[in-house]
Design goal:
Layout (H helix, E strand, L loop, with lengths): L13 H12 L2 H21 L4 H33 L7 H29 L4 H16 L14
Length: about 160
């Protein structure tokens, strides 16, 4: 199958820009915005999946995996903020410093995992995905005759 997907299709035109911004910088706020976009795209494609089940279900599975990775990283970011705000509530500066070092290491792992998956999901250009989706729809609906667009072939 193709590596690309609808991650940059009409309903999510910002997905490509987000991945281009996020993947190099790996900024926590940018990753969170990207996670929101991934979730939105997931719900859009889930709604469309019955129209192109083979391809779109694979895409939603990849989006689910990416969203889980980004979600886990976001949880670590929130935990880090809580620990930094009130270190005495969590065993003091020394303890919090050790925990933060572990969180940072885990966060780097999540971000490394998200990069190749995000690049795969957002690889296809929006116009190309839309074109492929239209071709699939026409073929499925029996509208393959280019001479008479919109009319089913006579049998």
């Amino acid at each position: 199958g193709r590596a690309g997907g609808p991650g940059r299709a009409e309903g999510n035109r910002g997905g490509d820009r987000i991945s281009e911004q996020v993947l190099p910088s790996r900024d926590a706020a940018a990753l969170h915005r990207w996670r929101v976009r991934v979730k939105n795209l997931y719900f859009q494609l889930r709604w469309l999946a019955p129209l192109w089940p083979r391809h779109l279900r694979r895409m939603t599975a990849r989006l689910t995996k990416l969203q889980k990775i980004l979600g886990a990283d976001h949880d670590l970011t929130v935990l880090k903020a809580v620990l930094e705000k009130s270190p005495d509530d969590f065993g003091g500066q020394t303890t919090v410093k050790c925990i933060l070092a572990r969180l940072k290491k885990r966060s780097r792992k999540f971000r490394r995992e998200s990069c190749p998956l995000g690049e795969e999901i957002f690889a296809e250009k929006p116009d190309r995905f839309i074109q492929r989706f239209k071709q699939h729809w026409r073929k499925k609906r029996g509208f393959g005759d280019k001479k008479k667009p919109g009319k089913a072939p006579v049998k």
